[in-house]
C-alpha cells in the first residue's frame, strides 16, 4: 500500500516509516523544509520512500501529498508541555487533523486514516485505571497541548460518526530508542539524572503514568491499519508505573545508586517558572515548565486490554524497555555508568 506519514521526521514518525517499509509498504514522508530528517531511512535506489514537503496547517501542501495514498498516518503534532505562543497548539494539533479529514473528503483514494492521539486526550485518572470509554471531562487541562489533543480527539470521533474511516490510537508516555525530541521525555530525564542535573525523585514520584515503548506503539499503529475498526479508539499504552520506578529500575539495571531524596513539586515549579523566563530571553524551550508540574501532580494510568484483545497489541514491560534504553543512551555517549 502507498501510505502518507505526517510527522515523519519526529520521534515516533521516523520509526513508523522504518517499520512500514519493513512491512512492505511504500512510504511518502510528509516533512517540513526545516525538518531534521535524521530519523528517516536514507533515500536510496530501491527504497520505496519519498519525501513530500509541506506543513499540516498549509492545506494545499497536505492535499498534494495525499495524492495516490490509500492510507494516512497522521502523527504530526506540536508535542511540548509549554510554548510561548499557545495558539500554535490549536493551529497545528487541531487544524492539522481538520486538514487531513478535509483531504480525505476531497480525494477519492484515501481508504483509512490512522490518527495518533494521546493518553492526554482521555484526561487524568487520579486513583484508577481508565480505558477507551473515558471521555475527557474538558473541565481542566494541565497543558495547552492536552487541551489541543482533547479537542482533536472529539473532531476525530465526530468525523468517524460521519463515515470518515478514521481509527484513533492513544499512546502512553512514549519511550525507547530514537530521536531525542521533546516527545522522548524519559530519555531526556534519564540523561539529566545520570549527568547529575536531576539528583532526586521528581515530586513524591509515586504517581502513575503509562509507559509505552516506541516500537510497541509503532507496531500498534500498523495493527490498527490492518485490524482497527473505524471510529474505535485503541489505547496503545504500556505498564502503569511511576517515575520513581523508572529511576529505581534504571539504577538496578546500571548498578548505580537510586536517588535518596525527593525534590518537592513546588521547587520544580519554581525551576519551571525560571526556565520559562529564560526561554523568553534565549528562545530555548524548557524541559520543565509550570504546566509540566501540573501534569506531574496527576495520575495517568490506562488499560490497553482492548488493543491486546482486538488488535493483538503486545506491549513489553517497563523493565524490558529500559534494559534497551540505558545501553542505547550509553552507546550514544549521553550517559555513563
Ligand atoms: N512522545 C510521547 O510521549 C507521545 C505520547 C502520546 C502521543 N504522542 C503523539 O505522537 C505523535 C508523535 O509525537 P512525537 O513524540 O514523535 O513528537 P515529535 O518527535 O516532536 O514529532 C512531531 C512531528 O510533527 C511534525 N510537525 C510539527 N508541526 C508540524 C507542522 N505544522 N506541519 C507538519 N509537521 C509538523 C514535526 O516536524 P519537524 O521535525 O519539522 O518539527 C515532527 O515530525 C504526536 O501526535 C503526539 O501527540 C506522543
What characteristics describe this protein?
42% helix, globular, alpha/beta, 12 strands, seven-stranded parallel sheet, binds NADP nicotinamide-adenine-dinucleotide phosphate, Rossmann fold
Task: Please provide the ordered H/E string of secondary-structure elements.
Answer: EHEEHEHEHEEHEEHEEHEHHHH
Main structural class: alpha/beta
Percentage of residues in helical conformation: 40-55%
CATH class of the domain at 2-183 and 211-240 and 302-321: Alpha Beta
**Proportion in β-strands:** 15-25%
Strand order of the largest sheet: 3-2-1-4-5-6-10
Count, helices: 11
Topology:
Layout: E1 2-6, H1 11-22, E2 26-31, E3 49-53, H2 59-66, E4 71-74, H3 87-106, E5 112-116, H4 144-161, E6 166-171, E7 173-175, H5 185-194, E8 201-202, E9 208-213, H6 214-227, E10 233-236, E11 239-242, H7 243-254, E12 262-263, H8 265-282, H9 290-296, H10 305-311, H11 318-332
Parallel strand pairs: 1-2, 1-4, 2-3, 4-5, 5-6, 6-10, 7-9, 8-12
Antiparallel strand pairs: 9-11
The structure holds NADP nicotinamide-adenine-dinucleotide phosphate (NAP).
Pfam family, one: Epimerase
GO cellular component, one term: cytoplasm
GO molecular function: aldehyde dehydrogenase (NAD+) activity
Amino acid at each position: 500500500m502507498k501510505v502518507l506519514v505526517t510527522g515523519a521526521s519526529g520521534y515516533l514518525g521516523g520509526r513508523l516509516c522504518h517499520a512500514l517499509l519493513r512491512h512492505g509498504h511504500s512510504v511518502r514522508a510528509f516533512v517540513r523544509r526545516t525538518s531534521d530528517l535524521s530519523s528517516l531511512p536514507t533515500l536510496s535506489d530501491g527504497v520505496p520512500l519519498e519525501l513530500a514537503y509541506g506543513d499540516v496547517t498549509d492545506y494545499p501542501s497536505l492535499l498534494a501529498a495525499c495524492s495516490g495514498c490509500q492510507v494516512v498516518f497522521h502523527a504530526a503534532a506540536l508535542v511540548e508541555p509549554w510554548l510561548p505562543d499557545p495558539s500554535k497548539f490549536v493551529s497545528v494539533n487541531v487544524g492539522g487533523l481538520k486538514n487531513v479529514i478535509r483531504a480525505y473528503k476531497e480525494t477519492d483514494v484515501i481508504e483509512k486514516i490512522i490518527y495518533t492521539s494521546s493518553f492526554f486526550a482521555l484526561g487524568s485518572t487520579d486513583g484508577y485505571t481508565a480505558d477507551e470509554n473515558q471521555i475527557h471531562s474538558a473541565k481542566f487541562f494541565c497543558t495547552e497541548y492536552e487541551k489541543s489533543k482533547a479537542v482533536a480527539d472529539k473532531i476525530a470521533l465526530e468525523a468517524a460518526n460521519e463515515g470518515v474511516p478514521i481509527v484513533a490510537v492513544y499512546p502512553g508516555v512514549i519511550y525507547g530508542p530514537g530521536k531525542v525530541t521533546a516527545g522522548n521525555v524519559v530519555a531526556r530525564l534519564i540523561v539529566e539524572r545520570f549527568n547529575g542535573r536531576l539528583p532526586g525523585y521528581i515530586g513524591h514520584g509515586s504517581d502513575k503514568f503509562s509507559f509505552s515503548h516506541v516500537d510497541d506503539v509503532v507496531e500498534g499503529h500498523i495493527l490498527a491499519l490492518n485490524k482497527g475498526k473505524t471510529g474505535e479508539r485503541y489505547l496503545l499504552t504500556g505498564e502503569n508505573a511511576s517515575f520513581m520506578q523508572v529511576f529505581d529500575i534504571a539504577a538496578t539495571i546500571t548498578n548505580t545508586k537510586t536517588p535518596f531524596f525527593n525534590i518537592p513539586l513546588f521547587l520544580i515549579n519554581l525551576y519551571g517558572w525560571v526556565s520559562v523566563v529564560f526561554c523568553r530571553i534565549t528562545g530555548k524551550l524548557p524541559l520543565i515548565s509550570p504546566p509540566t508540574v501540573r501534569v506531574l501532580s496527576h495520575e495517568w494510568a490506562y488499560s490497553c486490554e482492548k488493543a491486546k484483545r482486538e488488535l493483538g497489541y503486545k506491549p513489553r514491560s517497563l523493565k524490558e524497555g529500559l534494559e534497551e534504553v540505558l545501553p542505547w543512551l550509553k552507546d550514544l555517549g549521553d550517559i555513563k555508568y
